[in-house]
Amino acid sequence: MDIILLLWALIGHAFLWVALVNRIHGTAMPHGASRSLTLLCLACLVLLPVGFGLWCFSSGLAAPEGLAWPDVPWPVLFYLGTCWVAAAMSVVWWVGRVAVNRPPHLLRFHRTRSVQLDEDAARQQPRHFLVRLPGNEILQLDVTERAIDVPRLVPALDGLSIVHFSDLHFTGRVAKPYFQEVVRRCNRIDADLVAITGDLVDHSDFIDWIPDTLGRLRARHGVYFVLGNHDVRVDTDRLRRVLKRNGLIDLGGRWLQVDVCGEPVILAGNELPWIVPAADMRSCPPRTADGGPLRIVLSHSPDQLGWAQARDVDLLLAGHTHGGQIRFPLIGPIFSPSSAGVKYASGLFYAPPTIMHVTRGLSGELPVRLNCPPEMAHLMLHALPRPENGIGGAHDALPYRKPQSLAISVSRPPAPPGRVE
């Protein structure tokens, strides 16, 4: 029985410290401070159970017949009780996430193609030992297609195509040809808009990669970007200048109106909490009788969902979480830098009136991905059928559709079915 209680406490202990790490990285804390606190948390995660076990044996509390609970000091008992409660909460949360959650009914379909680099590009990859770990998916790319019903989308914009990717993390650990391949595949889609949601460059030396990578992106109505927390580690003014010089459009802290098929579309940027201010949506054109204009916001962090809801945003595009980067069977992601933990690690979410799409990103500062391949998302927006007497009730116009999932590998036999997030 004592072993069960201690293992239960260990689960709660891990849940508490990992949750703290996730929330530290969802704040605007300086990089040095967040790194130090993360190391401290990870040290507590490992050393506290080890220290408790050694203390029990050295003090004689651990006997063959069991642990002498009456002799355990009350602060230790209090912490153990907190861990037991946390373990119970983690199980309830996991059951809710895995067994109850399902994709929002506005997701019309979902399919994935798994792409490997061609041999020439693969040979140019650096011999970084993490990149070459067995099972590491960092050089794989999932091209994900999601068709989304948008309640207030005007019929003229039905089929609006957006490529969304994030978190490139130019560090040199994953070489330039990988990102050039991403750009080629993005251009092949021929989207209406391309949206890049931050964490482009980790070191100033790699700003020079932009002309040969992001500078080659093309979209019928423009390529747009916001910056993320890793981008503030470099000269952000220089980074923005280089991006704009190569044809990308900066949405950081502002909104603009783009005409698509004769209809206005509002595009805005939110780089909170690391770069202020966010776009002032109060000055946007008001809603018309048919529900337009469509409002799309690029944000690095999914924590800005509440901000988007309060500003009547239709579609919020975010990254930052990397999908957890390492996903365990059954459990899913553990680490996700967000105030909501892993709740918004990746996928599609609906919090009326806002639909949020969180991509897993293309890379990472640490080039390791297990059961969580990099992702480039192709979103296709569709208009809902409208009542004859107005736009009311559009949120409930369609029943839930079970998404279709299909994975196809390029130049290889079909792969096993892909994931739906």
Task: Report what the structure shows.
The chain has helices spanning 2-24, 31-59, 74-100, 119-123, 176-189, 236-245, 305-310, and strands at 62-63, 66-67, 107-116, 140-150, 160-165, 193-197, 223-226, 249-250, 255-260, 263-270, 294-299, 315-318, 327-328, 332-333, 347-351, 354-358, 375-383, 407-409. The two termini are 38 Å apart. An eight-stranded mixed beta sheet has the order 8-7-6-5-17-4-3-18, with helices on one face. Strands 9-10-11-12-16-15 form a six-stranded mixed beta sheet. It is globular, with a radius of gyration of 23 Å. Mean pLDDT is 87; it is low at 389-421. It contains seven helices and 18 strands. The chain has 421 residues and is α/β, with parallel strands linked by helices. It folds into two domains: 2-100, no CATH class; 107-409, Metallo-dependent phosphatases (Purple Acid Phosphatase, chain A, domain 2), CATH 3.60.21.10. Strand 13 and strand 14 (332-333) form a beta hairpin.
Which CATH C-level class of the largest domain is it?
Alpha Beta
Instruction: Report the sheet with the most strands, covering strand number, pairing sense and barrel closure.
Output: 8 strands, mixed
Number of helices: 7
H-E order: HHEEHEHEEHEEHEEEEHEEEEEEE
Mean pLDDT: 87
Strand segment tally: 18
- Biggest sheet, strands in spatial order? 8-7-6-5-17-4-3-18
CATH architecture of the largest domain: 4-Layer Sandwich
Question: How many structural domains in the coordinates?
Answer: 2
Radius of gyration: 23 Å
- Helix content range of the residues, please? 25-40%
